């Protein structure tokens, strides 16, 4: 085997010529080169430069470099304390070109990753070291894992934040940062290092660099998917910066992308299931969902109030004329803040934010925004003192409009708002019973039922309670049929409990409404919501306490021959011990009251057969009382 010259200049020319040939011809001569790398640093530098260039041009040298000690020598000598940086740079080039698309060499080099990371500390080596790590980690999971273990993400975020990564190297650094972040363990995500990394990335994202902002936001939302991490960083300063970022990122979206965000946000059943393939849409949706989720945390409730600076930002956005995706987030955050009567009253009476929300609900806005605004204003209706203010401001009419939407979740929220508004409130009950339905809304026709000439809002509630509805995306959402039935019962309960001498006109208006008992009877007949079933019997019982009301109940018994059997089933099953004592007693007693009312007030409108059935059931329930 020929040997290389001892003359440095001749040696280098011979090595260059040798490396230009096919490495399969005589790769064992590489052992001589390995030995010469241990000579003076200048010769070693030039030799390493030739080696790096050769393997970069011909990847077929990668195997021989590993087999003949070249690769081992260069990784073991990545030592800035004993070698000049110029030599280390050439060693890095050899490593980077040796691991490109070669998992065998990567497996050998990955254990030396700490030495490569150390090279980042020298500015003249930083770009080369980043390229080497990029080649090492590209599509090689073990290197991703090792990078995460060594917290390469932390090192890179510090260099990026300090502006110590050159423009040409940023893309490499961003890919490395992304790969290692994705491999962090749950414990790592929650440690102090991750908190610092997140803060650094948030600083970088807040610079609104058009070239890399999507990568920064992607890393941020990766952290924000963890509920425990959300709690950890839910400080006023961080939350405000995230909201700022959300607004800035939103401003970059095209009209089509904004529409795509709205389409994704309306899928309330699973907010993490995103079908869009547009990165801007995906990131905006995840950012909105993450910030919204943070606002539901205990940490948020403890750290924020209506006077917080970030709340001012949210209010400004919410009251702006444009319908933007971030308004959905504003409604959710403010709704989560409105958890006490004191806050809700301040929002309505002092801030008058309900006017803006009603304007949104009255507009042809996006489905996701309507749903979020409805959820927020439903919170505001919890304090009884807010309800007349909301009703007088037009919320009842706005809800009437929402009831005709095809989306069941929006219909359910509108129905739940109406139910809350009429609870213990004469002013809103007055609106529902006596105010005509707006001309822009046409009541849904009922089979074999003539609509009133000037239908009131109550009639619209009845028809919408009976209208077909699509399935709800989630069982946690409000069911429109259930909530509208409860709305009617809430009015009945108020009328029954009131000592006002004017209640006669209320009962007249109530029982003159066509099919008024049908939504209440539907509650009894449905089988999914046990509480609503019991409320239905209560509602029918309240109706049966007057002749006009009994006539309405009898009308439903006549139309539905299974209704009386359902009443019997609920009363006898609960009394038979299948439910807890409190529930059993309530359901049984409500059934007894209903039957007693029918027997006393419905005699003139019941057929002989129906009267017999009612009396028979009364007797049967009476026996249960004795038992």
Describe the structure.
The structure is a single chain. The termini are far apart. The protein is built from 38 helices and no strands. The chain has a domain at 1-150: Alpha Horseshoe (Leucine-rich Repeat Variant). It has helices at 8-20, 30-36, 41-57, 62-67, 70-76, 85-99, 103-109, 113-118, 123-137, 141-149, 152-161, 170-182, 186-189, 192-205, 213-224, 227-233, 236-252, 255-265, 279-294, 298-303, 309-318, 325-337, 341-350, 353-362, 367-380, 387-392, 395-402, 408-421, 426-434, 457-466, 480-497, 503-511, 518-525, 530-543, 547-559, 563-578, 581-601, 608-626. It has 627 residues and is mainly alpha-helical. The model has no long low-confidence stretch (mean pLDDT 92). 69% of the residues lie in helices and 0% in strands. This is ARM repeat-containing protein.
List descriptors.
Leucine-rich Repeat Variant; ARM repeat-containing protein; 627 residues; endoplasmic reticulum; 38 helices; Armadillo; ARM-like
> What is the number of helical segments per DSSP (H or I, 4+ residues)?
38
Based on Cα principal axes, name the global outline: elongated
What is the typical, i.e. mean, pLDDT? Answer: 92
* Fraction in beta strands: under 5%
Determine the fraction of residues in helical runs and give it as a percent range: 55-70%
CATH fold category name of the domain at 1-150? Leucine-rich Repeat Variant
Judged by helices, strands and strand pairing, the structural class is mainly alpha
- Name the CATH architecture of the domain at 1-150: Alpha Horseshoe
- End-to-end separation: 110 Å
Q: What is the rounded Rg? A: 37 Å
What is the CATH level 1 assignment of the domain at 1-150? Mainly Alpha
Compute the number of strand runs.
0
For the sheet with most strands, the description reads: none
């Amino acid at each position: 085997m020929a040997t290389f010259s001892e003359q440095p200049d001749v040696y280098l020319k011979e090595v260059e010529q040798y490396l230009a040939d096919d490495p399969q011809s005589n790769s064992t001569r590489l052992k001589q080169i390995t030995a010469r790398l241990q000579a003076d640093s200048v010769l070693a530098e030039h030799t390493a430069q030739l080696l790096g260039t050769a393997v970069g041009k011909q990847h077929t040298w990668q195997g021989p470099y590993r087999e003949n000690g070249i690769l081992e020598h260069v990784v073991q000598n990545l030592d800035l304390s004993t070698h000049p940086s110029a030599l280390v740079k050439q060693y890095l080039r050899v490593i980077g070109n040796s691991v490109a698309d070669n998992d065998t060499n990567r497996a050998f080099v990955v254990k030396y990753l700490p030495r490569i990371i150390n090279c980042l500390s020298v500015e003249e080596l930083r770009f080369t070291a980043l390229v080497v790590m990029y080649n090492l980690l590209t599509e090689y999971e073990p290197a991703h894992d090792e990078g995460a273990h060594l917290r390469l993400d932390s090192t890179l975020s510090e260099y990026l934040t300090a502006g110590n990564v050159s423009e040409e190297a940023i893309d490499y650094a961003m890919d490395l940062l992304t790969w290692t972040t994705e491999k962090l363990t749950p414990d790592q995500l929650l440690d102090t290092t991750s908190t610092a990394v997140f803060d650094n990335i948030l600083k970088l994202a807040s610079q609104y660099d058009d070239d890399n902002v999507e990568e920064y936001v992607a890393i941020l939302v990766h952290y924000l998917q963890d509920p425990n991490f959300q709690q950890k960083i839910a400080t006023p300063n961080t939350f405000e910066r995230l909201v700022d970022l959300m607004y800035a990122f939103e401003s970059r979206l095209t009209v089509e992308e904004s529409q795509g965000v709205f389409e994704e946000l309306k899928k309330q059943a699973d907010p993490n299931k995103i079908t869009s393939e547009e990165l801007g849409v995906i990131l905006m949706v995840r950012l909105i969902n993450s910030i919204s989720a943070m606002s539901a945390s205990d940490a948020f409730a403890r750290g924020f109030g209506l006077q917080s600076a970030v709340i001012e930002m949210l209010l400004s956005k919410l009251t702006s004329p444009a319908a933007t995706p971030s308004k959905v987030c504003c409604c959710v955050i403010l709704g989560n803040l409105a958890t006490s009567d004191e806050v809700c009253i301040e929002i309505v009476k002092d801030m008058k934010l309900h006017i803006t929300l009603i304007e949104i609900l009255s507009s042809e806005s996006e489905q996701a925004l309507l749903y979020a605004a409805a959820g927020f204003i439903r919170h505001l209706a919890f304090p009884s003192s807010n309800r007349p203010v909301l009703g007088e401001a037009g919320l009842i009419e706005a809800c009437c409009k929402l009831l005709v939407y095809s989306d069941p979740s929006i219909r359910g929220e509108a129905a739940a708002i109406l139910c809350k508004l009429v609870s213990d409130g004469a002013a809103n009950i007055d609106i529902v019973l006596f105010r005509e339905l707006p001309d822009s809304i046409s009541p849904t026709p009922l089979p074999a039922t003539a609509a009133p000439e000037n239908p009131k809002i109550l009639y619209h509630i009845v028809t919408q309670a009976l209208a077909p509805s699509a399935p709800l995306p989630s069982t946690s959402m409000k069911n429109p049929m259930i909530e509208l039935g409860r709305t009617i019962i809430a009015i009945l309960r108020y009328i029954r409990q009131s000592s006002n001498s004017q209640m006669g006109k209320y009962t007249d208006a109530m029982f003159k409404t066509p099919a008024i008992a049908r939504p209440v009877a539907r509650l009894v007949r449905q089988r999914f919501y046990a509480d609503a079933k019991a409320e239905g019997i209560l509602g029918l019982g309240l109706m049966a306490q007057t002749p006009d009301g009994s006539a309405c109940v009898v009308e439903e018994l006549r139309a539905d021959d299974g209704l009386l059997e359902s009443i019997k089933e609920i009363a006898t099953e609960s009394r038979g011990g299948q439910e807890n004592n409190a529930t059993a007693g309530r359901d049984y007693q409500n059934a007894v009251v209903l039957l007693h009312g029918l027997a006393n007030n419905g005699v003139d409108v019941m057929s002989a057969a129906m009267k017999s059935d009612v009396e028979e059931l009364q007797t049967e329930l009476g026996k249960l009382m004795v038992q």
